[in-house]
Amino acid sequence: MDGPDTRQGAEGFSFDPPAEPQGRGSGAGAVESWTPGGEPAEAASAGTGHAADEDAVIAAIASVYDPEIPVNIYELGLIYAIDLHQDGGVHIEMTLTAPNCPSAQELPVQVQEAVQKVDGVTRAEVEIVWDPPWDMSRMSDDARLTLNMF
């Protein structure tokens, strides 16, 4: 076949590439990106061009428990900041209950791994901070109830 197939099928279907919209690009017959849902391909791509859902990130963090305390680290008040970036990056500032915490090496890695599994997250960074120092006032009411600390 030498040129484009110009046959018309049932209901006006054509084998020709769609005509380029006015004022867009310079190539004749260019096809724009699309997705089955109709949104632009850039917006539909997981982890590109949009921040992750804050509630989903918090839920992922709350799935991590201190091995010595039967409360998740979010309810313990170990998370100081969660920064969600438009490109899908997440930066988390967390602390530990004490500088000599036996879980100091594993908890940040567990948080990072949990957050990286969240839809829309392209990268997760966990920074350990010591200022301000953690104290029991940072615990949620649920954590206090679980640990009988009123």
Explain the layout of strands and helices.
Layout: H1 41-44, H2 54-61, E1 79-84, E2 89-94, H3 106-116, E3 123-128, H4 141-146
Parallel strand pairs: 2-3
Antiparallel strand pairs: 1-2
Helix pairs in contact: 2-3
Distinct helical segment count? 4
Q: Give the SSE string.
A: HHEEHEH
Strand order of the largest sheet: 1-2-3
**If you compute it from the alpha carbons, what radius of gyration comes out, rounded to the nearest whole angstrom?**
25 Å
Note the main sheet. 3 strands, mixed
Coarse morphology = globular
Please state the average pLDDT score: 77
Ends: how far apart?
82 Å
Helix-residue proportion: 10-25%
Poorly predicted spans: 4-15, 17-48
What fraction of the residues are assigned to beta strands by DSSP?
Answer: 5-15%
Number of strands: 3
Class from helix and strand fractions:
alpha+beta
